[in-house]
Write the structure tokens for this entry.
Amino acid sequence: MGTQKAFSNSTLFNGLPPQKVLFCIIDIGKNVHTFSFLTASGQTICPPTKTLTNLQGFNSFSSSLQKAIRQTSPDLVIFAYEASGIYHLPWQDALFARFLDHFNSQAHPTFQIRLLQPSQVKASRQARSPRKRKTDPIDIHAMSDLLAKNLGNPITPPSTTSLLLQQSVANLRYYTQQLASLSISILRTIDRLWPGALINIPRFQRAHPELSPPEPLVRSKPLQRQTLRLLIQHCPNPYHIRQLGPQGIRELFHSHNLRCGPKRANHIYQLAINSLLPPEPLAESLASFLQTQFRLYLEVEQAIALTEQTLAQIIPSSPAKHLLTMPGISTVLAARYLALVGFPLRFETPQQAWALAGMDQEVYITGDKVYLGPITRRGNPYHRDTLFKMGFQVALHCPAIGLTYVNALKRGKGEVGATIHTANRVHRIAFALLRKQEDFRPPPISPAKARYVKEQMRRRKAHRSQKVKARQG
């Protein structure tokens, strides 16, 4: 009785009676799925049934679905399952492909998909019983309770462009992580092979102000410098650099069309002479390993460039083209943002996407006590990085938005807090642009105030660049 009341009051079913709504709940597994059909009124049509995740299993599931539809004659069929890694995606794609007319309301009954979070299912399972028990049937009943409360994220049929964009963004994220990991490993190998070749000068000066800092091979962003790249690829062993001498070092650079004067060549030579190198056999092994690492680094770097080219071709003809009208938003940022919110938008409000990324604020209120903490960080860090970068980049290039950042600094929010505050505004604007499919129109701002904001943002950018250089060396 309570279940019927919950469903009849829900706007999810558009006023349909519970007996005209069919639930298809699937417990996702790697090799075996368990499915069950029941009406919104609680009547079980098909008990929990196991089937393989391959085509044969999907065909068996589809036959059972058709039988359940004939038996109940529903007006609405709702599929629900957990977001279990990647294992729900093959069946999700197959459902859209086989029943697309039903999902587009062009055939009867209408189909919907609701994606449930594992944390929600766990809480629902524990609410049913405090005992620590987890089985497929228990999970299915827990998911039905969640549907009764109108929970779950709706999933709409994606276009080919949307699928390609989502995968390209996922690839870009993976390659970026791999590049960062390889960078750390390469720099560690260089420190072992050639001690003192790379030194973070700002960090050294802060830690040892009484000492005169040594002069490293390069001063900042070492893996982006042509000097270090050439040495890694063609002469990574510092013992060989000792043998070349200053003139040989110059000839090495000139043979690869890079400039190298006597001063630079002598500096590289003296650095190799004065370094405490490892034994020669070990140095030879480390040099070979370094070259292997750097080849992988270059491959990943090239993969990132190709992926960004793909996104640059997709975005201008996608719904995210309107995001490009916001100053400071690149094709990569637009693609990353669209991967977060989806299109059609998978959130009803921008606050929901903000919370999914873990950018929402901790709140604790009890009695007369009110605690507002930092952001929860309970979400995808890649999405948080996307929103954070969007906030600062738009503030940097659009004075009307930059004013939000500057005012937040004046209120004492700090650099990070001001960026998050600005990112929230940029996110709400971007969300509206996608929903309305409109170009960005910057709010009006006086020329004097615009000049003031530009100067302030220029200083903040310079300050950030100094901090990055101090970290990277």
About this structure: The longest strand covers residues 44-52. The two ends are 67 Å apart (CA to CA). The chain has three domains: 2-157, 176-308, 319-472.
